[in-house]
Design goal:
- The structure is a single chain.
- The protein has one domain: P-loop containing nucleotide triphosphate hydrolases (Rossmann fold, 3-Layer(aba) Sandwich), CATH 3.40.50.
- Helix 1 packs across helix 9 and helix 6 packs parallel to helix 12.
- The protein is built from 12 helices and 6 strands.
- Strands 2-1-3-6 form a 4-stranded parallel β-sheet, with helices on both faces. Strands 4-5 form a two-stranded antiparallel sheet.
- It starts with a strand and ends in a 9-residue tail after the last helix.
Amino acid sequence: MKHLIWLASYPKSGNTWFRILLDSILLNDGAAVDINQVQTASLRIIERQSFDDFLEFGSGELTLQESNSFKHKYYLDYGLKATEDTFIKTHEANIKVDNQQQLIPKEVSKLCIYIVRNPLDIVCSLANHYVVSTDEAIKIMGDSSYTFFKHEKGITSNIPEMIGDWSTHVSSWLNTKGFPVILIKYEDLLCEPIQTLRMVMKELGQPMSDQVLQRAVDNHSFGQLARQESKHGFREKVVASGAFFRKGKANSWKEELTKRQIEMVIHHHHQVMDNLGYSTDINQK
């Protein structure tokens, strides 16, 4: 059976907010949830200890290519053992590994919900999250080799995740073969949340009433989430960064990016932006 449901996105595209909404809808009838106790897609499947237990040897000396090859087998094994539908959050690109197979095994994957966001807005959020300059965030988004949990600074508690550049990341998932990929635009989740969530729940085979969806949306506005974070903290936030739940709106880049920075982002990503309907007019302010 295919039980794995991937919640995939490039970092800072709304994955965490979407998971909170799903948790409220699926498990709490739309009621408010504790942002530090979200159960949906809470599994840390990339923890090194679990990976090493599967390998039966330490993975610390593996190259990134070797790690990805074994990771495909690890995901496959995990899916074969799953007895019910399981949500897994990931920021990995669905790259090609051995024999040109995709990293994410189609044999055990039921579907993917891919969340995409205008890269011009991601830049601002990424800079805040990583505590880097805006120019550095733009550079990260254009880096085809960008990887989480690299070994350069020592072996981490998680195994490396290949992120790549924004355009390649988006394309790697939207061109996935072997299981359905549901595309959600962050902007639609903001502007048309009920319609967007209704579509997702239908695709999941778990339709919900609009009343439940509306309760979930009302209880998890960015203002509500920011207040929770301010009062109790948020364990997924990078320690040195500012608030995780920062603004939660579309087109904030219009006040935060210079014309030169807009040109840089569009230069790197114009083709995929066009494909997704994001304007590439540098004078659109």
